[in-house]
UniProtKB/TrEMBL annotation:
Keyword terms, alphabetized: Membrane, Repeat, Signal, TPR repeat, Transmembrane, Transmembrane helix
Single GO MF annotation: protein transmembrane transporter activity
SMART domains xrefs: TPR
Organism: Litorilituus lipolyticus
KW Signal (keyword) present: yes
Higher taxonomy: Bacteria, Pseudomonadati, Pseudomonadota, Gammaproteobacteria, Alteromonadales
Annotated GO CC locations: membrane
Signal peptide as annotated in the record: 1-20
Pfam families registered for this protein in UniProt: TPR_11 (PF13414), TPR_17 (PF13431), TPR_19 (PF14559)
Name the UniProt record assigns to this protein: PEP-CTERM system TPR-repeat protein PrsT
PROSITE patterns named among the record's database cross-references: PROKAR_LIPOPROTEIN, TPR
């Protein structure tokens, strides 16, 4: 019975509980509706959530909660509740259009369109409401036809209804009918001034029409209606920024970032504001954060690249701007920034493409192109500099500054038309002193003394109290070597402006030109006391004295400014001249990793390693020079020559190939490549390259020489000889004398080759290389003459191994054994690892009767030659027989395979001795 009672009690409790819950859901709904009527949004949400907690399947509570979320602008929460209400069969007529709007906010466009069938049963007003969102969904899905059909349907339902007008406005905006869309939205807002979708659309239309103030106002009103909308806050921040309300935009971005630390659009807004405030470091950091969060907007990349530019971060600047350059207008500042970053990174060949449509029509643009041209010239990229100079001249200019810049650039490129540009600059602006000065000194360089003199006279008349006219006229007289008149003018200059540097340095130059040491020192001392840190003065001072005292002055100047590259170069060059090579190296290595080092730095550093005989460092420095300054031609030539001297022609040719990357049509490199191909006997590639060189503006005699060498490689000596003769006459030097001798020898004209070398030596008696070649040609036919020539060579080069060896052999043949022994010993000192030198020494010792010594040296000669030199093996066999070691001699002779008749005869003689 107790169990029955307990069961009854439980049933009663459950029944009572059910009644209580039903009442509570209803009460919560009633409360919620009451709160909504009083606009107490948070309280209504709590009441509705309480109702749902009690009855999760209460469709009305779900609908009301979804509607509240939608009015707050929380699309995600609204969609969840309204979709649940729909699944619970909520029958309210507002459900479908409100759900459609929630889906629009969550960008679920296909789901909006999928509601079309259910929407067909709605009344006209609600159906029209839905069709507005369907229109927007169709447009966002790029289904224009469906959008047009939907608008037509909306108009047929309620032509002047707010949602029909809204649908039309969406379509008009999509078709770029911005003004018409704006009018439609205004009509909607006349019907309902707080209609959030109309406010949103008005903001978007205003943004397109660049009315950012109206856009900001629209978005602010939208937020008032839909306070939980996250997207509109970003749109508002963007419109505020564009409206010039940077401070307000940044505050809004900070509010967003406080909630979502890496919200990319907010990061972008803040980066834009920081950039405008020239806070480039922070702007760069913010932009990078936004980009790392996959926000790859064009303007963000522009901010990231521009910020990096102002921070001198060339790699980042290039990375960002290079990805968007094709979208930048021709005159956009971003193109300039990218061009500079390319210059700094050594990507010179990309600059022309970056500035391809940059016409230099404006003064600032022309000045930029000229400045960039100067920089390219400093790098050695002459062709690229010329391209930019042409661009800066694209538009006719009446600007004196531009004419002057163009003139100076052209003169730097050895283009004499630059003189006319300078004249035009002075003609446009007769008061343009700098242009006139440049013209005067350019005239002197071009030997147009009269023009320089006219300018100097004009200056003396126009500026009688200034030193410039007197200085210029003094330069004219120095050019004419009228030093007395120049001295007078410089004294007048110093009266006008005491101790002016130009006059004092010109006075010193005159004293040095006249080789007046005492006066040079006096003037150098005066200059250094007045201008102890001036580089030109320091160079003059050391040039006069060239001693430790002068070096100390340079050392003081360098130590006062150890990061000044020009002072470091001055000091290191002075150290080299005084043979303090290691000190010079220590000064220069401090700058090795600097970017865009001048040509002179690398030249001095290479010279330093050469004097230290550190060939490995010479090679690595040339490689580094090529890498850091690819538009310098010198390292390509020097490095190719370095490998060519080592007979490593393939490596030298690979260097030339790399050089063509930066100098694609350079005739010097083509000629150098041709030399390497000829020296390495690569006939076919040489013939192909000759076809290119043949049509270039190259001296015909040089072309004749190249063709002659090709013919020599082909064995066509009859045709080669006249070409090499013409080449030698045009370019008479040691190497070409050897080429001509080789052509004669190949044509079986040995006497002609000998006479040619004799004639050359009459004009060049100290050319040891030609003497050695001549002596070699005499060998065999005229050993007496060969001996005389070798004897002459040995006076200048007493330690020459090969000459000493040949002299030893020739004296041995003449029976002058003591002389032979003297030269054999001299040869063996440095040639103890050369088989023929050791073999000669062995033969001389044999003649001297030193059989043991002879056998020892002959055995070593055989080992060095690895038993493969027939003559050395025959000599070894002879010395073995002389030492009564017939059995060993017999084995040696048996292994010998002779190649000439003389060798065969000697082998027979030795066999007979055995």
């Amino acid at each position: 019975m107790k169990f029955v009672k307990a069961t009854i009690c439980l049933s009663v409790l459950l029944a009572l509980s059910a009644c209580s819950e039903k009442e509570t859901v209803d009460s919560h709904l009633t409360s919620a509706k009451s709160y909504l009527a009083e606009n107490k949004v948070n309280e209504s949400i709590i009441a509705l959530k309480n109702a749902i907690r009690i009855d999760v399947k209460n469709a009305e509570a779900r609908f009301l909660l979804g509607k509240v979320y939608l009015e707050l602008g929380d699309g995600v929460a609204a969609e969840k509740e309204l979709s649940r209400a729909k699944s619970l069969k909520y029958q309210g007529k507002e459900l479908i259009p409100l759900l459609a709007r929630a889906l629009i906010l969550t960008e679920a466009d296909d789901d909006v369109i999928a509601l079309s069938t259910e929407a067909n049963s709605l009344d006209k007003e609600q159906h029209s409401h839905f069709l507005a969102y369907k229109t927007l969904a169709a447009l966002r899905s790029e289904n224009i036809e469906l959008a047009k059909e939907t608008v037509a349907s909306a108009q047929s339902l309620t032509e002047q209804g707010q949602y029909s007008l809204l649908a039309q406005a969406y379509l008009q905006l999509a078709e770029n009918e911005n003004e018409q869309a704006d009018l439609l939205v205004k009509r909607v807002l006349t019907i309902d001034e707080n209609q959030p979708d109309a406010l949103m659309l008005q903001g978007q239309i205003a943004t397109v029409m660049k009315d950012y103030s109206l856009a900001s106002e629209s978005y602010k009103r939208y937020i008032q209606q839909q306070p939980r909308s996250g997207v509109v806050q970003l749109l508002l921040a963007d419109s505020l920024l564009k409206a010039g309300e940077s401070e307000e935009a940044e505050k809004l971005a900070d509010t967003i970032l406080a909630k979502v630390a890496n919200q990319p659009f907010a990061l972008y807004i803040k980066a834009m504001v920081r950039f405008e405030e020239q806070d480039y470091k922070v702007a760069s950091e913010l932009a990078e954060r936004a980009l790392s969060n996959n926000f790859n907007q064009f303007s963000l990349k522009l901010v990231a690249g521009a910020s990096a530019f102002y921070l001198n971060n060339w790699e980042q600047c290039y990375y960002h701007l290079n990805s968007i350059v094709k979208y930048l207008p021709a005159e956009h500042q971003g193109r300039r920034m990218l061009a500079v970053s390319q210059l700094e990174l050594g990507l010179v060949d990309e600059i022309s493409a970056t500035l391809g449509d940059f016409n230099g029509e404006k003064e600032a643009d022309a000045q930029f192109l000229s400045s960039l041209s100067f920089k390219l010239l400093e790098l050695g990229a002459t062709e690229e500099a010329k391209k930019l100079l042409v661009q800066s001249q694209a538009q006719p200019t009446g600007d004196a500054n531009q004419n002057a810049r163009q003139g100076i650039l052209k003169l730097m490129m050895n283009d004499p038309s630059g003189m006319q540009d300078l004249k035009d600059a002075v003609k446009i602006n007769p008061e343009f002193v700098e242009a006139e000065l440049a013209l005067a000194y350019a005239s002197l360089q071009a030997n147009d003394v009269e023009q320089a003199k006219n300018i100097a006279n004009k200056w003396q008349e126009k500026y009688p109290e200034k030193a410039g006219g007197f200085n210029l006229m003094a330069s004219v007289h120095i050019k004419q070597q009228d030093f007395s008149k120049a001295e007078q003018l410089l004294e007048q200059s110093l009266e006008k402006e005491s101790n002016n540097l130009f006059a004092l340095t010109e006075q010193l130059r005159i004293a040095r030109l006249q080789q007046n040491d005492e006066l040079s020192k006096q003037r150098a001392d005066n200059l250094i006391s007045l201008y102890p840190q001036h580089n030109k003065v320091l160079r003059h001072y050391f040039g006069v004295y060239k001693n430790e005292q002068a070096l100390s002055k340079l050392a003081e100047a360098y130590q006062a400014k150890p990061t000044d590259l020009q002072k470091a170069l001055l000091y290191s060059e002075a150290l080299l001249s005084l043979n303090e090579i290691k000190k010079a190296q220590n000064v220069l290595v401090n700058f090795e990793n600097d970017k865009q080092l001048p040509k002179r730095f690398w030249q001095v550093l290479v010279l330093t390693y050469k004097q230290l005989q550190e060939q490995g460092r010479v090679q690595s420095t040339l490689e580094q020079w090529m890498k850091q300054s690819p538009y310098h031609l010198e390292p390509v030539i020097l490095l190719a020559d370095y490998y060519a001297n080592q007979r490593n022609f393939e490596r030298a040719l690979s260097v030339i190939k790399r050089g063509f990357d930066s100098h694609p049509d350079n005739v010097i490199l083509q000629l150098l490549k041709m030399q390497l191909l000829l020296n390495s006997k690569q006939l076919q590639p040489a013939k192909e390259l000759y076809q290119t060189i043949a049509v270039r503006d190259v001296d015909d005699n040089l072309k004749q020489g190249l063709l002659g060498r090709i013919l020599m490689l082909e064995g066509k000596f009859v045709q080669a000889v006249p070409k090499m003769e013409n080449f030698y006459k045009a370019y008479t030097n040691s190497q070409n004398a050897i080429y001509l001798a080789a052509a004669y020898m190949g044509n079986n004209e040995k006497n002609k080759a000998q006479n040619h070398l004799v004639t050359y030596l009459k004009a060049n008696p100290d050319d040891v290389r030609i003497k050695a070649l001549l002596a070699n040609l005499y060998l065999g036919d005229n050993n007496d003459k060969a001996l005389d020539v070798y004897a002459d060579i040995i006076k200048a080069q007493p330690n020459n191994v090969l000459v000493n060896n040949n002299l030893a052999w020739l004296y041995l043949e003449q029976g002058e054994v003591d002389k032979a022994l003297f030269h054999a010993k001299a040869a063996i000192k440095s040639g103890e690892s050369i088989p023929n030198v050791v073999d000669t020494y062995a033969k001389v010792l044999l003649k001297k009767g030193d059989l043991t010594g002879a056998l020892s040296q002959s055995s070593r000669a055989s080992e060095l030659a690895k038993g493969k030199d027939v003559d050395i093996e025959l000599n070894y066999a002879e010395i073995l027989i002389a030492n009564s070691r017939q059995s060993e001699a017999r084995k040696i002779i048996k292994k010998i395979t002779t190649k000439t008749a003389a060798q065969n005869e000697r082998k027979t003689q030795l066999s007979n001795q055995l």
